[in-house]
Amino acid sequence: MGEQQLLGVIGATGKQGGSVINFVLNDSELSKKFKVRAITRDPKAPAARSLADRGVEVVKGDVEEPDILQKALEGVDVLFAMTTMAIAARTEFDVGKDVADAAVEAGVKYLIFSTLPNAHKISSGKYSVPHFDNKAKTEGYIRSLPIKSSFFCPGLFMQNFLTLLTPQPQNDGTYVLETTMQQDTKIPLIDVVKDAGNYVAAILANPDQYVGEVVFGASEYLNMEEIAQQMSQVTGKTIKYRKADPLGFLNFLPDDTRNDLLAMFAYYDDFGFYGDLTQQAFTETTKSPRNHVASLKEFLNSNLLPL
C-alpha cells in the first residue's frame, strides 16, 4: 500500500464535515488510505478536541481569512469543503470562491464541494433561493479552475424535523407538521449526519471515476403527507400535514433566512428538487453510497421527535 493521502475537511465539526470524518475513520479501507485534517475556526472547542482525541489532526482555518485558510490547506491531497447559508455580509459564493482559490494556491489535488441545484436557472428566474444558487455558482466557478473536482448534492436534511420542522401540538392531542408546500410535493430526504460521509466516501474510494460528476444524496423522495404518516407510525401519535400560510410561517427566523426557505419551498412546488432532472437525480442516488443509507423511518427510530 502506498503512502497515506491527507484528507482535509472544512466544516469538520458540522453535520456534513463531521459525517465525512466519522465515515472515513470507521471505514476499513479509507482509514488506511487517508489521514484526516480537520480545519476549524476554533481548535480548542469541545467538538474539535473530540476529533483530536480520535487521532484527527486539528488545525485552525477560517473561511473568512483566506491567508490562514491557505496555510491550513498546505499538504492536503483531497479537500472536502462546504459553505453555510449566511456568513456575515458576504455571500456563500464569495466564501466558496475564496475556499476554492485557497485550495488551488495551496496545491490541493482534488476538491469535493457540497453543492445544490441552481434554482434561479432551473426556474428561468422565477425563484431565487440564495443557499441553492450560491452553492451552484460556486460549483460552476470550481469547474473553471485547474483542479480535479467532484460534487456532493444532498437533499433536505431529516434533522430539520428535529428543529425547524418539528410537528406542533394541537389542543385535541394531535400534532401538525407544517411547511408552505403543497401536500403532494415530493422532496429528497437524507440523514445527513449518518450519510453525507457515506456518499462522499464513494468519491474518496474512486476519485477518478467521479471527476466532474455530481453525487446526489437522498434515501427517498416523499411528500409531506407521506412524511407525516411515517411520523405517526413511528411515534404512535396522530400527526397530520397542513399547508401553512407563508405570512406567518417561520417568522421567528431572520428575514433573509426565512425568505430563503420560503423561496425554496415554492421552488420545490413548481420545479421539484432538480427540475426536469429530478427523477434522474434520485435514480442515481442508488448508484453512489458506499453503505446502506438510512430511510426516514430508520432516522425517526434513532432520533426521537421532540413532541
TrEMBL record:
Family from the record: Belongs to the NmrA-type oxidoreductase family.
Species assigned in the record: Trichomonascus ciferrii
Name of the protein this chain belongs to: NmrA-like domain-containing protein
Span of domain NmrA-like: 5-299
Alphabetic keyword roster: NADP
Entries under CDD domains matching the protein: NmrA_like_SDR_a (cd05251)
Listed GO CC annotations: nucleus
Keyword NADP among record annotations: yes
Gene3D superfamilies: NAD(P)-binding Rossmann-like Domain, UDP-galactose 4-epimerase, domain 1
